[in-house]
């Protein structure tokens, strides 16, 4: 018997014989969950615990929990009183009560009293655990029940279960924990799959193994796409988890009560351990890796044995020894479904990042795994880095892979018309172990054209056969290419010609341009960079430009690794280019695809002659590569990767109709959709926008679909004055004279709009509940969205235009939140950034960070209005709000949005201009620094102020998110927006953090330094310490001292209330109101302070290089005004604050 | 090519017992920023650079704050300290263990030091005695130039 099977069978037997699952629930049917459901019965002796646990939400709300716990009797838990089968429930109850007790108030936890700790220790001992800690088993595996007792034994889903012991009892808590239970339930087949995989290896049955890998990949895709996805930060989603509410009221519960212990976290899921064992993860050096091992050692005995058993047979060795590309392909597909950036772990990381980013900003200062940090250290980035390290540890030993395909045939469409030519490429992928689903994308690894390579060689002054030693990145690239090309996979050098063929040599990336500028100090290149026009250049013509400035390009290929000029620093391997798959896997394909279709438009454009660019005809790398394939011999091979985008795929509800909007080649994925939906009775809908009859793609195929009753089609020609009408008799489109028009006009036609309205209405309200899909370039996607919003406007005459638009926006958000509006947007080259017409000042952007002024955001120098997008963002509106009004490029890159074409292309829909770059012309000044006289370039001073300003905005955003909790339901059974002692305690925490993390840092030493530096530059007679002294003086006034010390007063008052347990007493009402009001004042301070700091930045914006001459007075006045804001804050708060916060 | 072939034999030098006024005047007259410091027997002791002299005159933040805390105050303290410096001995400002080269050293080796350590001029020392200095200019002239 295979080892994993043996453990499964053995555990089932042992658990049955014992009559309990204290050694670990483990079965074929339910995986790691209890065989039936958690056993919730306890002897009546323990009713006081159960009764108290049932009141937890109210005890939180009134902060009466600690007082109530201390009233508990210390109950005996020996074998005489508590049978073995009650231990798991007792452990879960005691753990949750102890942690709820400990974490009732923000701040360090309080140790539970004897009446809890003693039985908890004893139960822990009886369960064979080392130390009393709220474990993964307690809080996930044992803490749920079916909503409907009749469902017993059936699937456990977020939708049909409840927590056995909720603490605050909110939906956020329920969804968050039950999603993890659901993960275990839906992941149960994985255990069986692993056991079967071992059996297949032992019996040498590769075909069986292929089926298993395919099933594992599918399962992991579902777990990530459907189960994780339920923890949805989007407000309108059915299973919404508000990240702020989660951070404040749910997340802290499981943090260990004592330092040095590890609490349950994502790494605790036994499924992750099984997968790590299956894929033979060897490296556990990251802190998350350490934690993972520590966790495994605390698992119940059966779990540990199972995981060991999984690791005892090397499936991977078998796959490698067989040398069957299809087997290897499917094995890799399963692994990538687990560990790649688009896989299970990658999506987990992205979700965690979004939640932790907000959580830390609203004051969480520790995770269950013990990550700690203060706001300014950006701890959410640290956690994220660690998660990413842990994911990469798994990838080590799995070199990046790709599949190998052959070009079967290429057909050209729409020939003749310039720029509107398409190629339909059919790839033969039989035996490559490729699987895909409708909506998946395929990445193609292109080559550069021989002509472009030749031009680049000439510019480098090199022969193609020069050998270039490779760095690590290139070695990985070669290893991947070796799946497809005739090349030694361990090659450590490559001919220059080959390197250029596989490298990014057009257009020039900003980092490359900057690197070349560092080498050459070329003024011409500096101008190009300043104008952000580097993308107008290809490497060869940029090198020619630099050569005119006497740069010897030969240095690049003569330099070795480690040298500044080393060519691999400037030419990085080409990445995969993404295309929609225009086919579906056939049923007959079983687990492996045979063919894969792409529809590709040719990208050709011309750069213009300007001061920072030269005129030339250019063509897109990948589209020209695929174009060349048409002429290549059939043996031509292509390297592929399949990407499963998280938010583009067929609905789970196969009965709902699809409404598809496509422009040009955007038609591609919909053929995949339609292929997969063969046999449906009702037709789907397609709105197709294209230029002219000549560029009508796949017309015959579409006509066939209409004839078969599977599709209704509307066509909009943008450059052809005809209307297309489908003629049922001929089964063809007939053309009648008409007016050229775009998709928005087509959608707005009354019959179409009416039909769309009916399709879009929910099934529950008599509509069809259709799913909308949009595929095309950004401009098209924007037009469709605008038009659909008009369609969604209620025709209620009582509403004015604005109210109708707001209702439509809300409806659109709801569609997006429920996955019924999906987009696949691709960007195309849109001309240089230097051409942007609308230039916006940073000082304008910082005001756009609130509901009344909207939300703007800067990414890579461009400004986006994300007001509407906030409601559509898969990561929720609060994370958008937290980065509004500032340059969010860093965070955007952190979550790798820039690497995901399908995400990055959406930006274009919201772009409104570029940030105006100030020109300081190299001006400088001498001022007083920390140690004495200091030389400072004016540009540096500006940079420091703008960062300071952004910091204020980020704090304002965080505080606003914090305060959003006031209107929320924080505990089960309270009216929304009610003032409760629990909320007051949270508010006191918020204010304390405002004081420590925000105010102290804004007016602390950094401020003194910046103030001094600026004052000294403005005037030789300015006393540079004046700013710092003014602040210090204010903080020493009675008002300042009172307000600065207020959080301590408030905290003492909350603690007194907790210890007396009289939170329900209405006498506290004024105090609760006071806590609320303080939050408003704090926010007002940040808003006013932002405006004051913005005045400083405006002085720079108005005068640029003349800031220190003509703008000095303005600048000085602006910084002198800053301390006044603190003064008005103190004055305002003391004006209404009672003399003392004495009670009653 | 050796250092001995290109070095300046008549190095700008100063006795260890001199004061700042004297040092400042030599710097001014010779136009050379790094003075070689020797004792009465011409035994090499160290280097005195104009940068170090100026740095001594430049006020630190506490001095500036004591004076009033403006940039103008700083500028004035600088001038005053400069004048006060005139009568002070150079000894505390002398760099006592600088990099030295021997006349036999190859010029390429010395060029490497000069460039990598951002040094303009190095003392040439033989048997403890100062025999000259070698500067970037010396090497430029001899290696690249035609003289």
Question: How would you sum up this structure, described in words?
Answer:
The complex is a heterodimer of chains A (1144) and B (147). With 1144 residues, chain A is an alpha+beta fold. Chain A folds into five domains: 3-395, Methane Monooxygenase Hydroxylase, Chain G, domain 1; 447-569, NADPH-cytochrome p450 Reductase, Chain A, domain 3; 658-826, Nucleotide-binding domain of ferredoxin-NADP reductase (FNR) module (Rossmann fold), CATH 3.40.50; 832-917, Flavocytochrome B2, Chain A, domain 1, CATH 3.10.120; 918-1136, no CATH class. Chain A contains 45 helices and 26 strands. In chain A, helix 28 links the parallel strand 14 and strand 15. Chain A is globular. The termini of chain A are far apart. The mean pLDDT of chain A is 89. By secondary structure, chain B is an alpha+beta fold. Chain B has one domain: CBS-domain (Roll), CATH 3.10.580. Helices cover 44% and strands 18% of the residues of chain B. Chain B is built from seven helices and five strands; from the N terminus they run H-E-H-E-E-H-H-H-H-E-E-H. Chain B has helices at residues 3-6, 20-30, 50-57, 61-67, 71-85, 107-116, 136-144, and strands spanning 13-15, 34-38, 44-49, 121-126, 129-135. In chain B, the strands form two sheets. In chain B, strands 1-2-3 form a three-stranded mixed beta sheet. In chain B, strands 4-5 form a two-stranded antiparallel ribbon. In chain B, helix 2 (20-30) links the parallel strand 1 (13-15) and strand 2 (34-38). In chain B, helix 4 (61-67) packs across helix 5 (71-85). Chain B is elongated, with a radius of gyration of 18 Å. The two termini of chain B are 14 Å apart. The mean pLDDT of chain B is 92. The A-B interface holds A 926-933, 1016, 1019-1026 and B 58-61, 64-65, 68-72, 74-75, 78.
């Amino acid at each position: 018997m295979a080892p994993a099977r043996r453990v499964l069978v053995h555990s089932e037997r042992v658990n049955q014989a014992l009559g309990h699952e204290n050694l670990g629930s483990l079965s074929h049917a339910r995986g790691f969950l209890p065989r039936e459901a958690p056993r919730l019965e306890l002897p009546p002796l323990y009713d006081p615990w159960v009764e108290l646990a049932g009141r937890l939400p109210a005890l939180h709300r009134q902060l009466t929990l600690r007082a109530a716990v201390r009233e508990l009797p210390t109950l005996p838990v020996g074998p005489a009183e508590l049978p073995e089968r009650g231990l798991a429930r007792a452990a879960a109850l005691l753990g949750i009560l102890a942690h709820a007790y400990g974490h009732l108030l923000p701040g360090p936890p309080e140790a539970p009293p004897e009446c809890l700790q003693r039985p908890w220790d004893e139960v822990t001992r009886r369960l064979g655990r080392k130390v009393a800690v709220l474990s993964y088993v307690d809080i996930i595996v044992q803490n749920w029940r079916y909503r409907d007792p009749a469902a017993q034994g059936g699937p456990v889903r977020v939708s049909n279960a409840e927590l056995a012991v909720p603490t605050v009892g909110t939906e956020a808590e329920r969804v968050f924990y039950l999603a993890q239970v659901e993960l275990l339930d839906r992941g149960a087949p994985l255990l069986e799959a692993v056991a079967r995989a071992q059996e297949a290896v032992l019996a040498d049955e590769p075909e069986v193994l292929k089926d298993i890998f395919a099933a594992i990949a599918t399962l992991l895709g579902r777990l990530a796409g459907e189960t994780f996805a339920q923890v949805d930060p989007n407000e309108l989603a059915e299973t919404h988890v508000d990240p702020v509410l989660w951070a404040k009221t749910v997340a802290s519960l499981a943090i260990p009560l004592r330092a040095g212990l590890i609490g349950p976290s994502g790494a605790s899921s036994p499924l992750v351990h099984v997968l790590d064992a299956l894929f033979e993860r060897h490296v556990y050096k990251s802190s998350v890796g350490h934690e993972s091992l520590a966790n495994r050692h605390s698992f119940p005995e059966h779990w540990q044995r199972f995981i060991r058993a999984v690791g005892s047979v090397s499936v991977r060795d078998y796959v490698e020894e067989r040398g069957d590309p299809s087997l290897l392909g499917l094995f890799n597909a399963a692994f990538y479904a687990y560990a790649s950036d688009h896989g299970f772990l990658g999506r987990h990381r992205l979700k965690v990042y979004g939640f932790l980013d907000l959580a830390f900003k609203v004051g969480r200062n520790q995770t269950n795994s013990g990550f700690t940090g203060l706001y300014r250290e950006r701890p959410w980035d640290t956690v994220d880095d660690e998660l990413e390290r842990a994911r990469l540890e798994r990838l080590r030993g799995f070199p990046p892979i790709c599949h190998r395909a052959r070009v079967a045939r290429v057909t050209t469409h729409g020939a003749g018309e310039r720029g509107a030519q398409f190629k339909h490429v059919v790839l033969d992928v039989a035996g490559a172990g490729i699987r895909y689903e409708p909506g998946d994308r395929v990445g193609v690894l292109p080559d550069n054209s021989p002509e472009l390579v030749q031009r680049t060689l000439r510019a480098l002054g090199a022969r193609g056969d020069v050998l270039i030693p490779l760095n690590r990145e290139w070695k990985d690239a070669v290893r991947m290419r070796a799946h497809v090309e005739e090349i030694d996979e361990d090659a450590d050098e490559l001919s220059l010609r080959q390197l250029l063929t596989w490298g990014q040599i057009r257009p020039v990336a900003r980092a490359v341009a900057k690197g070349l500028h560092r080498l050459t100090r070329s003024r011409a290149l500096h101008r190009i960079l300043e104008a952000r026009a580097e993308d107008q250049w290809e490497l060869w013509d940029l090198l020619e430009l630099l050569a005119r400035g006497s740069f010897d390009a030969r240095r690049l290929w003569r330099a070795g690794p480690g040298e500044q000029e080393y060519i691999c620093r400037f030419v990085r391997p080409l990445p995969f280019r993404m295309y929609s798959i225009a086919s579906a896997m056939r049923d007959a394909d079983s687990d492996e695809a045979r063919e894969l279709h792409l529809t590709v438009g040719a990208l050709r454009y011309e750069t213009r002659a300007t001061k920072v660019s030269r005129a030339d005809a250019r063509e897109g790398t990948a589209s020209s590569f695929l174009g060349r394939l048409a002429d290549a011999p059939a043996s031509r091979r292509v390297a592929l990767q399949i990407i499963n985008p998280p938010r583009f795929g067929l609905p789970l509800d196969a009965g709902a109709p699809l409404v598809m909007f496509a422009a040009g080649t955007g038609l591609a994925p919909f053929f995949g959709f339609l292929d997969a939906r063969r046999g449906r009775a009702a037709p789907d809908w397609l709105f197709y926008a294209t230029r002219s009859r000549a560029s009508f793609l796949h017309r015959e195929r579409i006509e066939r679909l209409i004839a078969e009753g599977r599709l209704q089609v509307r066509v909009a020609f943008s450059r052809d004055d005809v209307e297309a009408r489908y003629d049922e008799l001929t089964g063809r489109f007939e053309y009648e004279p008409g007016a050229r028009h775009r998709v928005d006009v087509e959608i707005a036609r009354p019959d179409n709009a009416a039909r769309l309205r009916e399709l879009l209405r929910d099934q529950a309200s008599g509509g069809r509940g259709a799913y909308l899909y949009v595929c095309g370039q950004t401009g098209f996607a924007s037009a469709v969205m605008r038009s659909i919003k008009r369609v969604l406007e209620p025709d209620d005459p009582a509403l004015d235009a604005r109210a109708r638009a707001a209702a439509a926006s809300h409806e659109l958000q709801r569609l997006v939140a429920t996955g019924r509006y999906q987009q696949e947007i691709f960007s195309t080259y849109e001309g240089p950034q230097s051409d942007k017409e609308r230039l916006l000042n940073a000082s304008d952007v910082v005001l756009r960070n609130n509901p009344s002024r909207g939300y703007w955001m800067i990414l890579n120098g461009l400004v986006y209005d994300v007001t509407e997008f906030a409601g559509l963002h898969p990561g929720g509106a609060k994370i958008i709000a937290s980065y509004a009004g500032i340059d969010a490029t860093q965070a955007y890159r952190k979550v790798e949005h820039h690497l995901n074409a399908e995400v990055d292309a959406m930006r274009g829909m919201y772009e409104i201009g570029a940030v105006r770059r100030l020109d300081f012309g190299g001006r400088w000044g001498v001022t007083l620094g920390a140690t004495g006289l200091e030389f400072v370039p004016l540009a540096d001073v500006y940079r420091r102020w703008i960062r300071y300003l952004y910091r204020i905005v980020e704090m304002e955003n965080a505080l606003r998110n914090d305060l959003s909790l006031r209107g929320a339901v924080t505990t089960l059974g309270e009216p929304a927006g009610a003032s409760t002692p629990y909320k007051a305690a949270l508010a006191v925490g918020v204010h304390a953090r405002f004081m420590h993390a925000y105010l102290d840092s804004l007016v602390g030493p950094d401020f003194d330094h910046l103030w001094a530096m600026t004052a000294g530059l403005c005037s030789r007679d300015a006393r540079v310490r004046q700013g710092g002294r003014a602040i210090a003086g204010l903080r020493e006034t009675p008002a300042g001292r009172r307000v600065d010390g207020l959080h301590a007063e408030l905290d003492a008052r909350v603690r007194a209330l907790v210890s007396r347990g009289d939170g329900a007493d209405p006498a506290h009402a004024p105090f609760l109101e006071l806590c609320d009001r303080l939050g408003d004042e704090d926010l007002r301070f940040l808003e006013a302070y932002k405006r004051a700091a913005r005045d400083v930045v405006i002085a720079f914006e108005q005068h640029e290089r003349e800031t220190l001459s003509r703008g000095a007075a303005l600048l000085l006045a602006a910084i002198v005004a800053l301390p006044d804001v603190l003064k008005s804050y103190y004055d305002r708060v003391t004006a209404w604050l009672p003399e003392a916060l004495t009670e009653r | 090519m050796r250092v001995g072939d290109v070095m300046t034999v008549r190095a700008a030098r100063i006795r260890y017992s001199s004061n700042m006024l004297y040092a400042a005047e030599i710097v001014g007259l010779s136009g050379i920023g790094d003075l070689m410091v020797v004792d009465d027997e011409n035994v090499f002791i160290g280097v005195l650079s104009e940068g170090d002299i100026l740095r001594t005159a430049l006020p630190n933040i506490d001095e500036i704050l004591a004076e009033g805390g403006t940039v103008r105050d700083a500028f004035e303290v600088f001038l005053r300290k400069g004048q006060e410096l005139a009568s002070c001995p150079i000894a505390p400002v002398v760099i006592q263990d600088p990099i030295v080269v021997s006349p036999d050293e190859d010029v390429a080796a010395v060029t490497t030091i000069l460039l990598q350590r951002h040094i303009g001029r190095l003392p040439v020392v033989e048997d403890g005695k100062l025999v000259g200095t070698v500067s970037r200019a010396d090497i430029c002239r001899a290696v690249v130039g035609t003289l």
